[in-house]
Amino acid sequence: MEEPPGPLSREMPSSFAGNRDFYEEGWVKKLGRKLKEEPLIPLGSFVTCWALYHAARSVKRGDSLGAQQMFRMRIYAQFFTLAAMVGGSLYYNSDRILRKQYYDLKEEQKKQEKRNAWIKELEARDQEEQDWREKIKETTEKREKEAREIREKELLVIREGGPLTRAANEIKKRIQ
């Protein structure tokens, strides 16, 4: 989820920062959901607009009684819309709280899955490192063993008077 911008950020702070509904839900889905949740608000708005339109037509025709009735209907429709907004807000508040808890739980699960994946990756890297160390240790031991064997053979050849030693002795005799 996006964090609110910091003081040095070039982005303007948003009142929607941290609001999952705003970022994850498209306007069509949101409109559909809002219409299902509170169908009386659009109805009240429509009746208000209808009454205002007919009041304007009545004024244009010069029908002051019709205009007066439509203006009163507009006031009643606005009151109905306001009451529907307050009532819907109170009625659906628990649903909003449950939805927020659901999104929080879902986000917590995502964080836990990410954490588990990270731990699994670290364990795999650790195992790989241990395998490499073991391989390096085996290779080092093998090379040390080969070096010891070569040194032992060299010492054996020197002690037994191998071809190099014999050649060296002959050169010494010639020089003397």
Describe it for me?
- It contains 5 helices and no strands.
- The chain has helices spanning 20-24, 27-37, 40-61, 64-160, 163-175.
- Helix 3 (40-61) runs antiparallel to helix 4 (64-160).
- The protein is rod-shaped, with a radius of gyration of 44 Å.
- The protein starts with 19 loop residues before the first helix and ends with a helix.
- 3% of the residues are buried.
- The mean pLDDT is 83.
- Which class do the helix and strand fractions yield? mainly alpha
Largest sheet: none
State the total count of DSSP E strands.
0
Low-confidence stretches: none
Radius of gyration: 44 Å
Q: In percent, how helical is the residue content? A: over 70%
Strand content range: under 5%
Task: Describe the secondary-structure layout.
Layout: H1 20-24, H2 27-37, H3 40-61, H4 64-160, H5 163-175
Helix pairs in contact: 3-4
Notable characteristics:
mainly alpha, 176 residues, single chain
Condensed summary:
The protein is mainly alpha-helical. Helices cover 84% and strands 0% of the residues. The chain contains five helices and no strands.
